[in-house]
Amino acid sequence: MSNVMGIINLSESTELIKELTLNRSIGAIPFAGRYRVIDFALSNMVNSDINNVSIFTQGKTRSLMDHLGSGQPWDLNRKRDGLFIFHPDVSSYDIVQKKGDIEMFKEQLDYMKKSKQEYILMSRSYMVCNIDYRSVVDFHEKTDADITIVYKSMNNSVRRFVNCDTLTMNHEDEVMSIGKNLGKEKYYNVSMEMYLMKKDLLIQIIEDAIHTGDGDYLKQCIFNRMRSLKVMGYRYYGYLSCINSLSNYYTASREMLDVNVYRSLFSGERLIYTKIKDEAPAKYTNTSAVVNSIIGSGSIIEGTVENSIIARGVNIAKGAIVRNSIVMQNANINETSNLNYMIIDKNVTISKKKMLFGDINHPYVVKKNAIL
Fold first, then answer.
1. Could you count the other beta carbons within 10 Å of the beta carbon of residue 177?
2. Over the stretch 161-187, which tens digit does the pLDDT of each residue have?
3. Which of 57, 168, 206, 366 would staple 177 via disulfide (CB 3.0–4.6 Å)?
């Protein structure tokens, strides 16, 4: 789709997942043993032939920048278009520190205006799914919409989408209002925070918001103008998780152990791409016992692993037991230690005979580089 440019907006609240975002953005959080959360947003765009992709960052970005590099794993290291990364500008002329992403978009209006694409597709990093945006563009053009919002119909037996935006629509898929999911309604339509519109309309919304000062965030500015625009909802039917809280991250990670879920997300024509690391295959000794787990390359497993996700380069020593846990890259789990319902961040060392237990609803996090 040469007429569509992609924007991934990292202006995301980290309050409910701050244990994992002390040194990184949500998009840079490791997921499913070898990926980062942002890999899904990037892969969805390039799989839909969107070759002009920009990422608007906020907060700590070193880990994200290291992961993205030149964009080569996503075929975005191009002479024309490709991957663009924008950071918030700090101006000495403006003594008022503005919050929200409108100011950040204002600083890059020239980039948007000079692009050759007619449409802009905006996405967050924390919606984990595998979607073909070409169908969204077809729907947008057929319905003659000003803005199309991607959504998924849910029921509240799945409580991971509490506090996410919800859409109220009529029988013609037109969005009538946007609210918040408080977890009280039996059925609801969760917004995936993916917006498709013409580039000129987005620029107009940003410039009007700056002129009138009626909103600090782009999403808020879009909501304020809904009555004057034709806003349609495109229904998505595939797998979806929202990685905006620690509980959601743990639940989504554990779902990757379900073969059907894993295949629906990672198999098929639309692959999920990530930074390539050339490592040896995982090594299992004769003392190891692994059940229903994902084991990353370069790991050495001598102990017991059950219902867990083990990332690349992890060492689990003889006699160690890891159950119902997520262990990130280059961690060392020493002899006879016992972990259950844990999230072990990168480069952590767990000493001998340590017993660490969380709860299925409240997993315990060991912070990056810690030695226990």
1. 12
2. 878 899 999 999 999 988 888 877 778
3. 168
